[in-house]
Amino acid sequence: MNVQEAMDLLKKKGYKYTDKRQDMLQLFSEESRYLAAKDVLETMQKTYDGMSFDTIYRNLSLFTELGILEATELNGEKRFRFTCAVDEHHHHVICLECGKTKHIHHCPMDDQPVQEAGFDVIGHKFEIYGYCSECRKQPAS
Amino acid sequence: MNVQEAMDLLKKKGYKYTDKRQDMLQLFSEESRYLAAKDVLETMQKTYDGMSFDTIYRNLSLFTELGILEATELNGEKRFRFTCAVDEHHHHVICLECGKTKHIHHCPMDDQPVQEAGFDVIGHKFEIYGYCSECRKQPAS
DNA sequence: TTTCATAATAGTAATAATTCCGATTTAATC
DNA sequence: GATTAAATCGGAATTATTACTATTATGAAA
């Protein structure tokens, strides 16, 4: 997935082209890390004065629905990143400070698929948290 | 960990005994599932008229600091459960509806400890989500 | 290229979870 | 029983997120 593919997908689904959407996607494509809504807003407001929360949130959730972004939750806020193209299914090591990620090319569900009696399993999460080399020095707790 | 042990720990650390703390702990000890703050508040308010948010939240975070409760985040809200006594370290299958859990006696970090260059790993999360037999019929999405 | 229907956006209000704070009450100690 | 610090209440403040209405802009059709 890249910006062009994402815009094409939007078009195919009948959504409209806007500069703001393109710029949001561009922002994500340049960063292989999880961004919070407020990070996106801050950056976008540099270009678009008066950019509203609503637009950010609406597009973040649209992009996530369409599989363009993937979301997780860190410290009580949702964060989003461009969907990885590396392989079918994998997990992440995530920096708690800046949201930077590295791939884990291994899924624990492959080893020991969980079949709990009576449980309809619909998803799982495997994430490793820490601080990257840049954020390591002063982890803002 | 049980209610008595938890109360002893509180005493040992210099915290005061209160009926509300005991009742909160009692509630958790009776349920092997994750409860949201509002669940705890609702139950407690049946006994204590005018019970405040503050008391709930303050005690939930105190209990968590002391290792009496363990926390996770589901659908944007923190949830808490009594710390499991089963074994040293394990993970959970969690019902997204009621918060009920089952243990996974296996940690993916044991198989393939992650050593990402430059990353200070400080924690990890492995959770499997689904619906338990009681909640399966009508998953309130 | 103008027109038109609809989607997207701005601006702001509303909601929901959580935290904070001053005043009061209570538990543990003297 | 008096004292002191912790715990609580009640409500306000914060923060992230969602909802709503009027306006604007996109894409398609005339």
What does this protein structure show overall?
Chains A, B: Its cofactor is Zn(2+); Mn(2+); Fe(2+). Chains A, B: It is found in: Cytoplasm. Two copies of one chain form a homodimer. Chain A is built from five helices and six strands. In chain A, the strands form two sheets. Chain A has a three-stranded antiparallel β-sheet with strand order 1-3-2. The first copy, chain A, has a three-stranded mixed β-sheet with strand order 5-4-6, with no helix packed on it. Chain A has two domains: 80 residues, Winged helix-like DNA-binding domain superfamily/Winged helix DNA-binding domain (Arc Repressor Mutant, subunit A, Orthogonal Bundle); 40 residues, no CATH class. Helices cover 35% and strands 25% of the residues of chain A. In chain A, a hairpin with a 2-residue loop joins strand 2 and strand 3. Chain A is an alpha+beta fold and 141 residues long. Chains A and B meet through helix 5 and strand 6 of A and helix 5 and strand 6 of B. The structure holds a DNA duplex (30 and 30 nucleotides).
